[in-house]
Amino acid sequence: RTKTQNFCRNEYNLTGLCNRSSCPLANSQYVTVREEKGRCYLYMKTIERAAFPRRLWERVLLSKNYEKALEEIDENLIYWPRFIRHKCKQRFTKITQYLIRIRKLTLKRQRKLVPLRRKIERREKRREEKALIAAQLDNAIEKELLERLKQDTYGDIYNFPIHAFDKALQQQDAESESESDAEKEEDDDEDTDKREFVEADDSDLSDFEDMDKLETSSEEEQEEEEEVEKKASRSKSKGKTPLKGPARRKRPYIEIEYEEETEPATKTKAA
Amino acid sequence: WLSLSREEKLAARKKRRKEREALGDEAPPKAIPKTIENQRVYDETTVDPNDEEVAFDEATDEFAPYFNRQTVPKILITTSDRPRGRTVRFCEQLSTVIPNSHVYYRRGLALKRIIPQCIARDFTDLIVINEDRKIPNGLVLSHLPDGPTAHFRMSSVRLRKEIKVRLPAKLKKSGKPTEHVPEVILNNFTTRLGHSVGRMFASLFPHDPQFIGRQVATFHNQRDYIFFRFHRYIFKSEKKVGIQELGPRFTLKLRSLQKGTFDSKFGEYEWIHKRREMDTSRRKFHL
Q: Signal peptide span per the entry (chain B) (predicted)?
């Protein structure tokens, strides 16, 4: 319904508007063009047949050829007013155009709408949330990474202080303890060299800014601690210097201080 | 149990603890709480690590060349028609996560036609992200030279910006992945089906991760939902590791697995999620 006009709901309407002059019910002489299953027909209504509702609308099949169909409309509506003839041809044109468009579209890919079921959606969502909680992803990932570290998949990129190394080993075998003690003395010399290396290097690394603080504190501790309990070469790299650069993450430090630093970080990550 | 009020429950718990302490060593062992994972209906297709048949299958299936390091994965990421901003950004982020991947837009091209083109250009995998109402909601992962095609429903997609970093403001926002090849973690893929899906995921990433990059992509299966996360890790000590989440995250739920490449009409389905049969039990999972 526009501001000035109604739309007619009758299927036989020619123009589509609801006026006295374009209502198929109000006029005893009327003509329309309608299409059925892709073919266009010309429908005519005359006074003579007003008494026979079944035979009221006379139907003429129009040719598939556009120009020929227009001629057919003309010859059928020869004595009808010009306006109505014109409107018929306009309607016919529009119909053929949309038929062409339909045929073109069906050749392209069409979207198939699959209805969602609300109950199922909700169920899935809830299950997903619960699964997420049950999964404890952060913990699982951390565990897996530590496992891989233990199983030596990373080779000798990482070195860890012998304290922790010993603790870990005590669970496994007692032999390596003595081994690492022996290595301790060897590593003294190397570590003095590496110590310098580390100090220069670590300062420009780090993704996390709180790691920076860590490093400064750990460096202090390095200077304090004379013991050479740094080199825990799990892969028994005898004298082989581990990879330089960003891979090196030597972290000798005192546990207590460290925990304070990272508690906020771990808390927020876990939260 | 549930009808007891909170105070009653606390009281009961305290009493039990006292009894346990009182008994000392004779106390009965702590009861293990029942979880869905504990109560899971045993799936007969669970893979036993030493199963020969499975090992043989895996040596001869479509991923064998990848696992023998003969092929290097090359991924094509695309979307459905007319992707909206969110999907486009998601595709870009996904391509930074997966090394050697390219994003191409699909302007009305039929999948059946682009697949032969992809094979000709040596792509190993095709990812199509389906979109609905401006958010990505589906993922089709197809291993190209005639490999299996998995169709997933994707949910809770978070872009990199949205992964909240709850560190103090002075620290940067969630970081960006680098160009290093990440490691891959596949958790909890127990059944045969889960195994093949897991291998599909693994074949997206080059087989030799660069440990220098310290990045890890995780596919964690829990109750048939596969959670994808991308982290950067750092070993703070022998026993502690810190992880920082970067990269997008999403969850997938497997809808169907087809034997050949993507073909909705004539494909041979290896597994379809049939809601009526498979969703009946709350303790039965398939992946």
A: none
